[in-house]
Amino acid sequence: MTRQERAQADPLQRRRIPISGVAGLMVIAAYLVVALFAPLIAPHGEAEIIGQALLPMGEGSLLGTDQLGRDVLSRLIYGARNTIGIAALTTALSFLVGGSLGLLAAVAPTWLELALSRIFDALMAIPYLILALVLLAVFGRNVTALVVILGLIDSTRVYRLARATAFPIVVSNYVTAARIRGESRSWIMFREILPNIIPPLVAEFGLRFSFVFLSISALSFLGVGIQPPTADWGSMVAENKTLIIYGSPAPLLPAAAIALLTVSINFVLDWLVNKAGGKQ
Amino acid sequence: MTPMLRAIVLRLGSAALTLLIVSSLIFAALEMLPGGFAQATLGQAATPEAVAAFNKELGLDRPALVRYLEWLGAAAQGDLGVSYAGGSGSARRDIATLISDRLYNTFFLAAYAALLAIPLALALGISAALWRNSWYDRVVNTSTLAAIALPEFFVAYVLIYCLAIKLNLAGALSNVDASTGFFEHLKKATLPALTLTLVILAHIMRMTRASIISLLDSPYVEMARLKGTRPAKIILRHVLPNAWAPIISIIVFDLAYLISGAVVVEVVFVYPGIGQLMVDAVSSRDMPVVQACALIFAVTYVGLNLLADIMTTMTNPQLRYKA
Q1: Which of A249, A280, B72, B275 is the most exposed, having the fewest neighbouring CB atoms within 10 Å of its CB?
Q2: Which residues cross the membrane (chain B) (predicted)?
């Protein structure tokens, strides 16, 4: 049986987008809507105290109140905006730094390329979370430090990809032509090479975002990331963690919100990777 | 020198160089402290005399390079310095003593999780490759894809909620200490170990499946199939021996991941490991402890990655014999 025949015989492979991919796309879209329109959707304010502390679900509000009497549903909705927004900003910084340095390494003299790669390799030899913890201990616990630190740590991964994908392009005829024409190094980096490495970088963006998002949530959960009173899913889990001993699923809600988004992103990426693989 | 020995020696040298750079980065973190270590410890209101006295007492007035070499030399001999959380004078705690028990606990947990995860992941991966494109394969594949993306604390709290609270099968907290016996320790570490197992299981399983499937199209497998060999025998006897290299390297890579993944899990279960110590030290900005923990994590990580590379080299037949 050839590949096509197998695909036709199999109802799941015949469908153009797998169910998991469709579901993933819908979840991501819903999260984006909630994050963008949080103030319109949330019934109460982010830090607004609406009544007694720790009201159970359904009393006063759909999901009850937290340890300070704030509405859990509203905090979850604002949490989407804060957590996703900060993760997106961090990923953007990571691509800006890692992408530029990766391009620079591809066109730079050998000694500079070697020095850059050696430093980035050493940074990657320290586990991601551990390096973030060391730097957060040094620069304090605030959102700016968190974004800059995670953005820089993550840029090591983007650097590698940008450099590796730019290398075959550097030796191509049109880059040589531009060089002979006397174009500047930055022209070659951003006008000749960059447009050609955009597709793999875009595919990587989703993966890096979900990684950064998980790291920010983990650090906030550990109490060294996003600080209260900002509503954020990681710290919401930490704030409510003792409740689980009493049989309340309260810390599971924000944790599930994180899990659902990262699982959806992975489903969509898996579908895109399979699609790209099928073409070759 | 055989090509393999040469490759291993080169790799050892590169790991040593990496560790040197890594240790200097960790050391440099302290130097980057805004206002210096004295200011951060004594507070903004400290007089210049107090800062100078503090720096002199700790030897911080000497050049950074000298202090780095001393720190490295002492760490290599097992002396990790003293923690500053306990005030001054004799109340300061020796970091090596502070860490040794916790280091044992963390390795205990990681080893426990590895013993659960590796056999299970291999079994799932091989069976998924054997029955590939079946419903079984698809279910295993999709659920492990989802499992990879789950945050550790979500898995941990779901397990606590279901197994400890609703079914009352295990305790929700893993409060062990030096007096806890081995089997009691094993029992209390079960939930954290299960959490870590779920986290790395998916990775190893998918890699096992992928490396087996990538070999199924090769001519020698085609030959075995034409001879009429049963599919299970093809995979176990012909494909698996050639697929070991990537599988072993992903297993060791995941072991390295276990060490840092344990940080979050230890905090959830209040398990006294080195990860929890590090998080506490970050919160109180106890820099010597942060540096010591980071150094241990980095050495373990680099060491395990080195092991993975060496094992991959040794399973490569092209490097095993002189060309």
Answers
A1: A280
A2: 107-131, 143-169, 189-205, 243-269, 289-308
